[in-house]
Specification:
Elements lengths: L6 H6 L7 H6 L1 E7 L4 E8 L12 H17 L6 E2 L2 E8 L6 E12 L3 E9 L5 E10 L1 E2 L3
Antiparallel strand pairs: 1-2, 2-5, 3-8, 4-7, 5-6, 6-7
Length: about 140
Amino acid sequence: METHRGLFEEIQAGRVPPPPAAVTLGWELVEVDPAAGTIEVAFNAGEHLLNPVGVIQGGFLAAMLDDTLGPALVATLPRGQFAPTLDLHVQFLRPARPGRLRGHGRIVQRGRQICFLSGELTDARGGLVATASATARIQAMTG
């Protein structure tokens, strides 16, 4: 199998800093399988992400899912390519409390440019918090 040399690997190796959004969310790689198009990540959902009623604000949960599904695809891309999210559909199933949340993402179908992704976010007890599906577009990085 060809050695992967893209942005994802550069961040993993510490040669490129993680995106500020990932730092805010407490993003951590647990396991990635580029050949299978799957990823497992974790988030340290701190109190800085709480809404007024004391649970993790839904926008942050959506961001966590975006930072789960997107990397499942980005981990498969060569240097110079990226895959911005075109559409993200999130279903919130139960409130999420501060603590460790896990994201499980996968590539459902990959075309030359357009890809379909799916995943879920679970709490520390394994309870399903939210699910998501997304569409992403593979393109050259600019800038």
